TrEMBL record:
SUPFAM superfamilies: Phosphotyrosine protein phosphatases I (SSF52788). GO terms for molecular function: protein tyrosine phosphatase activity. It is an enzyme of class 3 (hydrolase). This is protein-tyrosine-phosphatase. InterPro entries: LMW_PTPase, Ptyr_pPase, Ptyr_pPase_sf. Residues 1-148 form the Phosphotyrosine protein phosphatase I domain. It comes from Ornithinimicrobium cerasi. Gene3D superfamilies: 3.40.50.2300.
């Protein structure tokens, strides 16, 4: 599950990118969803700039805004936060240590993370160019995540990111 604040910019973009990358990698047994930590946009379609930039890159959008609740931990094996604030909000909702270990920032899978885990900045309210930069970051991190799934290193990446929290 990909998670941002309102579930209309970053997390639906990450969901769309991840769905396509998994499909292209032949990993059809992975389900991807998205949610936001706030209830601002429950039931809303993704932001028009996010959709326009994503569709221009060949991504499809089928989700609507949803709010992350503690029960989502039961449905997800991995909860991918877009930034440190989303990560903190998710960890506050974790009911057990098992819930908490599922939470990691998507940027943990990005290239060039030797200096720490990268945040995907929120483009809401910014011009379209911010959405292009957002997709560039998400695509890089998702490619790293798919490689980690393929080579079985997801847990190692998550554990390493946890030590950098």
């Amino acid at each position: 599950m990909t998670v941002c604040l309102g579930n209309i910019c970053r997390s639906p973009a990450a969901e769309a990118v991840l769905v396509r990358e998994l499909e292209e990698a032949g990993l059809s047994d992975v389900t991807v969803t998205s949610a936001g930590t706030a209830d601002y946009h429950v039931g809303s379609r993704p932001h028009h700039h996010s959709v326009a930039e994503g569709e221009g890159r060949g991504y499809a959008f089928g989700s609507v805004g949803a709010q992350f609740v503690a029960d989502h931990f039961e449905e997800a094996d991995l909860v991918l936060a877009m930034d440190s604030a989303n990560e903190a909000d998710l960890l506050a909702l974790a009911r057990t240590p098992g819930d908490a270990v599922k939470v990691v920032r998507l940027g943990a899978f990005a290239s060039g993370t030797d200096g720490g885990v990268l945040d995907v900045p929120d483009p809401w309210g910014l011009p379209r160019e911010a959405y292009a930069r957002m997709y560039d970051q998400i695509e890089d991190a998702v490619q790293g995540l798919v490689r980690a799934i393929q080579d079985g290193t997801v847990r190692e990446v998550v554990a390493a990111a946890r030590t950098r929290r």
